[in-house]
Amino acid sequence: MKRLLLAAALPLWLGCSAQPGVEALRDLSYTAGQPEDAARHQLDIYRPASAHNATVLLFIHGGAWSTGDRSQYTALGKRFAQEGILTAAPSYRLAPGNQHPAQIEDVAAAFAWVVRNAEKYGGDPRRIFVAGHSAGGHLAALLSLDPRYLQALGLSSRNIRGVVALSGVYEIRGPRSVFGSDPGALEQASPLRYVSASAPPFLIGYCERDFATLPAQARRFHRALIDAGVPAELLFIPGQGHISEILHMAAEDDPIVQAMLRFMQR
Predict the structure, then answer these.
(1) 223 phi and psi angles, rounded to 5 deg
(2) The domain spanning residue 65 has which CATH number?
(3) Total number of domains in the chain
(4) CA-closest candidate to residue 224, choices 264, 165, 178
(5) Tell me: the pLDDT tens digits for 218-259?
(6) pLDDT bracket for residue 12 (50, 70, 90)
(7) Could you tell me the residue range of the domain that residue 260 belongs to?
């Protein structure tokens, strides 16, 4: 039901008219793979028309690791581009056809592509932030904390200026269709396991009517980062639910966007 609600709501978010000064570049391939996965190995870029050494944001979509697509985040991409931020939105392979770690491997490949191509599109490769909502929040956190995925591509968390995780999952307990049932594998997929002092700064958000376990997970994750000496901010969004918070981010007065802008400016 939650996935159906998201699928029904997001198309309403797509009817976003073109914004002046924003250029959308679509279907850019960020890695090679099986031919049937070609569309999942692409990203869209939303570029301020006059971008030069712009802050860069890689935004990872949610959908319980099994639904969702970059095309659903047009309004979000344009919203940040209007603020002068070069924004990249990748797709990635989905479960159950592709179990973990396919999703995080694809996100790492998308991030590596952005590092190596940001300057070409007017972005500053030294100021790349990673953000995500729901499953995307999990992937953003795991990318920045578990060193294996970036190391495989010659990168590290030092290439990430900061992380924004919105209503993310930080302690994996399932679903089996994505992560299997082995307790060791579930722990290895949990960002909380990898918290250390070397982590980049975090902005962690959750909302008033979030899915049941996520507020407590956000608070535990935030506390673990603080205890490790990592700069971390906890953001509570009143009046919003798990789906409405992401839909509302296109609004001018959205508190999440305002908090993200402050975070990236710092």
Answers:
(1) -65, -40
(2) 3.40.50.1820
(3) 1
(4) 165
(5) 999 999 999 999 999 999 999 999 999 999 999 989 999 999
(6) very low
(7) 2-265
